[in-house]
Structure formats: C-alpha cells, structure tokens
Amino acid sequence: xxAGALTFLVQTLGNLFAIAVLLRFMMQLFxxxxxxxxxxxxxxxTDFAVKPLRRxxxxxxxxxxxxxxxxxxxxxxxxxxSYWLDDFPFALAGGGVWPVMLGLAAVRLLSLTVYLVIGLTxxxxxxxWINTHSPLMxxxxxxxxxxxxPLRRxxxxxxxxxxxPLVLFIIAQLILMLxxxxxxxxxxxxx
Length: 191
What we know:
It is a single chain. By secondary structure, the protein is mainly alpha-helical. The protein has 7 helices and no strands. Helix 6 packs across helix 7. The longest helix is centred in the middle third of the chain and has 34 residues.
C-alpha cells in the first residue's frame, strides 16, 4: 500500500516536472512570447534543472535542447523508481534491461507530449468560450495553433463552429492507441 502511494507520488511529481519542461521547450519551438506570468512561472520552476544541463547539452537551431534532456531524465527516473517500488529484479535482469528502461522513458515522454497537446487544446477551447482576453490565451494560442492551423485547411467550419479541436483530439487519441501503445507493448515484452 505504501509502495503504491509512493509510486503515485513519484509519477505525479515527475510527470508534472516533465510537462513544465516540455512546455518550456514548446514555447521556444513555437516562438511563444515569454513576457507573461505563465511563461515566467514555467522558466522559474524549471531553471534549477535546465541551467546546469546547458553546460553539457548545447542549444542548436535557436532551441534549448537541455529542456528535452531534462524531460527525458525526469521520465527515466519515474520509470526506474516505479519499477523499483514494484520490486522489479534489476540485479537479476542483467544489462539488457537498461535499453528497455530508456525506451520506456522515451515512449512515456512521447505519450506525455501528446496528452499535453490534448490538454492545451482543451484549455484553448474553454478559454475561447469563457474569456478570450485571459492572460493565458496568447500562450495557449501560440502552443496549439501549429497543430490546429493545418487541420483548418482540411476541416471546414460547420455553422461558424471550428471542429478542428475535435479532429485533433481524435488524431491524438489514435496516435496514443496505435503507434505509442504498440511501442510500449513491444518494450514491455522485452522485459
């Protein structure tokens, strides 16, 4: 019972940190302005891990790749601790278990990224109905528009209702169900 609670705590805190670092990377990738309180909060929360990693992982193409490394390391720690708390026999498994654990961390980070896009799209849809002048709206708009704009070219408006968020939800769920779940099952089968 305590192991289950500790697993929950590690997964929650690790995933929240990974989400924060992914948000920081996505804000750089999509050129979202950092002159707002939400972006400054994300930078403040993640600086302790990103700044030291910058010494080892250089930026390239105007992006801070240390953010992705920090997110991956957070997920790797979550995977390791979760399996350790579940009494996985690391000592008996041998050296072949480490590539599987790294692969699981990468797949779970990919899955977390898709869930992040779903969550941001949901927040954007809610803010568009409730408060379009929210200080959070420019950030959410900047993070979701690269995913929704290409869909708008294909999906027509129906009675002045934009259905692209719904289409994005469906595509994201299919991505989670097919390639990501298949990768995770293949990796778990190797354990």
